[in-house]
Every structure is written in C-alpha cells, then in structure tokens.
Amino acid sequence: MNTNRLAHVAALVGEPARTAMLLALMDGRALTARELAEAARVSPATASRHLGLLVEAQLLALERQGRHRYHRLASPEVARMLEGLMQLATPASGAHRAVVTGPRDAALRTARTCYDHLAGRLGVAIAAHLLHEGAIAFDGEDGGRVTGRAAALLQPLGLALPELPAARRPACRPCLDWSERRPHLAGRLGTLLCAHCLDSGWLRRLPGSRALQITPPGARVLRDWLGLARWQDVVEAGAA
C-alpha cells in the first residue's frame, strides 16, 4: 500500500468543491467543465484547476468530442469509493443530506442511479427479487455470480441475458445502498438492467439529479415482475 498515494487521493476527494464535482458525475454521465463548475459553485478557472488534479489522479477521465471536452468518473471503483464515503457521512439514524434538496429528496430515495446501475428502493427491491428467485448469489461483500435461473427470470422484462464471460469487472456484486442500508445490484448485470429500464422508457432521468422517475408503463411492468409486496416497498417512499 502506497500511503502517500492514499493520502493524496483522500485530500483530493476531501475538498468540498471537488466532492461536489465527483458527486455530480455519480449518475454515470459525462459533463463539461462549465457544468461541473456550476455543480460546485466555483468559477470556471477554479473548476479547471480542480478537474486537472482529479484527472491527473485518475479519479476522472477526460473525453474529447469535437471542440468539446467532457469529464466522467474514471471507473466503477471510483463510484464505489464515493458510495462508501456517503455511507460513512450518513448519520446512524438513517437521515441523509441529499445531493439535491427540496421535493426531489423522496425521488432520490425511491430510484436513482449509482454510477451505471440502479439504487434506492427500486434497486434494492430488484436485487432482493433476483436473490430470492435464485437468479444471482452474492459471495460476501465484493463478489457475486449469475446463475442459470437468471435468463428465465429476466425474460418477462424482454431482456435477453447475454454471455457474461470472465472479465475484470464482476458479472454481479452487492453494492450497499447508502439510503436503504441494504444491497442493490452492481456489476455488469446491474448495468444491463439499468440501461434496459431507461431504454424501455420505464425510468426517466430527472434534470440536475441522480433521481429517476418511474413512468406509468414502467410502474406496470415492474410491479408485475417484482410482485405487489416488493412494489409497495418501492413506492411507499414517494407516499411518505
């Protein structure tokens, strides 16, 4: 373990403006320096200096598209580190300070993105359903596997399960949800489910937030798939 590297990364993440920038990218999308400056409430020049340090430390990746430059989290491991820090920063009572304030707080607790997979009550319910039906199994805190029952369980969603060969990123793994304190599903299967729900129009991104809105068609499909009891666990957040 390189203690100097660890201290350097901790110092970078610990600066409030840089923290705000990193959290703004937790929905998996790429943002411009100006957009990140607005998220951190700093000037463009200050944001540029912060972003340069984060890219140098390999916490952010820089992408160029024509005249534009975009920043995104460098890897799922960076997102996982941030999710873990949010858990530590959350009081034991379970109350939390949301990234966005106001009426969107309930939406964040109901459904949101955690980098490239689903979190909140919806993400937790999906993971619990897959576990209960034996479609996945979690091996401790970091590992998991997709079983032969997954394809049949996902078929009603119109999702064909592709081959998930061995790769650096696991096919599935638990990710402790910072608002629910129970695992939601990360890994390649988690990414696949999130993208499918968005592409199918069952979930809709809310501007300026990680929160996801469950559309009426999505509510019907997901309610039927999860079952009424699990679905009630999802929607009660919006009724609270």
Strand order, largest beta sheet: 1-2
Main pleated sheet: 2 strands, antiparallel
Number of strands: 10
The overall number of domains is 2
Taken as a percent bin, the fraction of beta residues is 15-25%
Mean pLDDT: 86
Uncertain parts: 93-104
Helix and strand run: HHHHEEHHEEHEEHEEHEEHH
Share of helix, binned? 40-55%
Shape: globular
Radius of gyration: 18 Å
| Structural class estimated from helices and strands | alpha+beta
Counting DSSP H or I runs of 4 or more residues, the number of helices is 11
- The first-to-last residue Cα distance is 45 Å
Task: Explain what you see.
The protein is an alpha+beta fold and 240 residues long. It folds into two domains: 72 residues, Winged helix-like DNA-binding domain superfamily/Winged helix DNA-binding domain (Arc Repressor Mutant, subunit A), CATH 1.10.10.10; 149 residues, no CATH class. Helix content is 49%, strand content 17%. Helix 3 packs across helix 4, helix 6 packs antiparallel against helix 11 and helix 10 packs across helix 11. The longest helix is centred in the middle third of the chain and has 14 residues.
